[in-house]
Amino acid sequence: TRTTADADGDGYIDSLVITFSENLFAGSVTADDFVVDGYTIEGVKSVVGATVTLALKERNVYDTGATPNVKVVGTVEDVLRNVSTAETAAVAATDGAAPVIVSAQTVSNTSIKAVVSEHINDNTLTNGTGWRAVDSAATPNTYSGSTATFNNNEIVLTVASIASATGDVKVSYTTQSNKNEDAAGNDLASK
After folding, report:
1. CA–CA gap between residue 46 and residue 26 (Å, rounded)
2. Distance separating alpha carbons of residues 93 and 81, to the nearest angstrom
3. What CA–CA distance (Å, rounded) separates 103 from 66?
4. Does the pLDDT value for residue 128 go beyond 80?
5. For an engineered disulfide with 2, which of 28, 70, 82, 138 has Cβ 3.0 to 4.6 Å away?
6. What is the pLDDT of residues 148-190, one digit of tens each?
7. pLDDT (tens digit, 9 = 90+) per residue, 10-20?
8. CA separation for the pair 33, 16 (Å, rounded)
């Protein structure tokens, strides 16, 4: 299997996890053994058992929903030192990277717009559950979300009036199991 990951949770794929059918001899695995379409492989992060984790250079576009083609172009060895053959065809990776909130701004006294790194599946949307806004007062005021509407990767959160908020208002979200998911079923990450 090949699965994407966003290890630092910033909305950009930075890792790819490849699982082989048997444990590997770690010394036989190099970054040159793989090609990930559209990405630069910066190195091998780890080889643990049958799992190889590649470090990818982050692109300059939010891409947690991407499923790049991955191909083994070199040879790797199992722990008995049997040598694999290069693949003839690339295989699309599975989306394993959770969508993340990349920005949020006040739209009006009762609404805040958050932008996420990828489209949220309409069938998994919550109605404001898990969302809240907090101002920067010495004793912060909390404004819970009452509704949330989505349009592709934008979320408009309706909150109690923040007209009297002190300073900046920050949006937070607590992950809800099986809610606010991307097309692959990854839950929106907490922020």
Report:
1. 8
2. 26
3. 20
4. no
5. 70
6. 888 878 888 888 888 888 888 888 888 888 888 889 999 989 8
7. 999 999 999 99
8. 13
Longest Cα pair distance anywhere in the chain, in angstroms?
69
DSSP string, 81-100: -PBP---SS-EEPB--PPP-
Identify the residue whose tokens are 């609404």: 111
Amino acid at 174: T
Which runs of E-coded beta strand occur in the chain?
2-5, 15-19, 34-36, 41-48, 51-56, 69-72, 91-92, 101-108, 111-116, 131-134, 142-151, 154-159, 170-173
Answer yes or no: is pLDDT of 125 > 80. Answer: no
Number of CB atoms found within 10 A of residue 188's CB: 27
Count helices and strands in the chain by DSSP H and E runs: 0, 13
Place of tokens 């009452």: 146
Least Cα distance to 100 among 22, 4, 6, 2 occurs for 6
**Strand pairing category for 142-151 and 154-159:** antiparallel
